[in-house]
Amino acid sequence: MSYVPRWTPEMLEDYKRNLARKTKTPAKAAPNPARTPAHAPATPTPALVPYDPAESVAVPLRAATGKMTQTEERYNRDVLLGKGRFEAVTLRLPGGGRYTPDFMTIDDGQVTFHEVKGSYRLGSQGRAFTAFHDAAAYYPIWRFVWAHWTGKAWERKTV
């Protein structure tokens, strides 16, 4: 069961006052007429468009930092059909740790994170296994898949 903080009206007012003190709008500098072309049109303010998830395009939240291994390339090609986003997000774990899943997909509106491991064990596999299960326990709204290449086929477990 997760902890949901309960704020009293006094606590909320204190928070709003502190927030207003911390956020001050910086003063805008006057435009330099020497740098502004005379023919520059005034930029219109774009109209707000209602958000429609069906029309949205998935974009990685940050650039991929590493290179895919051959096992990860094979998993993305064979299982995910090239639709997996490699190292798209990093999740913060309780206790200050972080976990970056190998792939992120959105399947029928459900966010799924995939962790891919080869047929032999590396020293980092134990740490990845622990972080994977910590993330699955801490973020129950998302689906987590542990994929293991046995040498002949993919063995997948959904948490």
Helix and strand topology:
Elements: H1 9-22, H2 70-78, E1 85-86, E2 91-92, E3 98-99, E4 103-107, E5 110-117, H3 125-138, E6 143-149, E7 154-158
Short description:
The protein is 23% helix and 19% strand. With 159 residues, it is an alpha+beta fold.
Structure notes:
With 159 residues, the protein is an alpha+beta fold. The protein has helices at residues 9-22, 70-78, 125-138; strands at residues 85-86, 91-92, 98-99, 103-107, 110-117, 143-149, 154-158. A five-stranded mixed β-sheet has the order 1-4-5-6-7. Strands 2-3 form a two-stranded antiparallel ribbon. A hairpin with a 4-residue loop joins strand 6 and strand 7 (154-158). The longest helix has 14 residues, at 9-22. It is extended. The two termini are 17 Å apart.
User: What's the pLDDT, averaged over the residues?
Assistant: 76
Q: What top-tier CATH class of the domain at 63-158 fits best? A: Alpha Beta
The helicity comes to 10-25%
End-to-end distance: 17 Å
Order of helices and strands: HHEEEEEHEE
Q: Can you summarize the main beta sheet?
A: 5 strands, mixed
Query: Which residues sit in consecutive blocks of at least 5 with pLDDT less than 50?
Result: 53-63
- Judged by helices, strands and strand pairing, the structural class is alpha+beta
CATH topology of the domain at 63-158: Restriction Endonuclease
Q: C-alpha Rg, in Å?
A: 23 Å
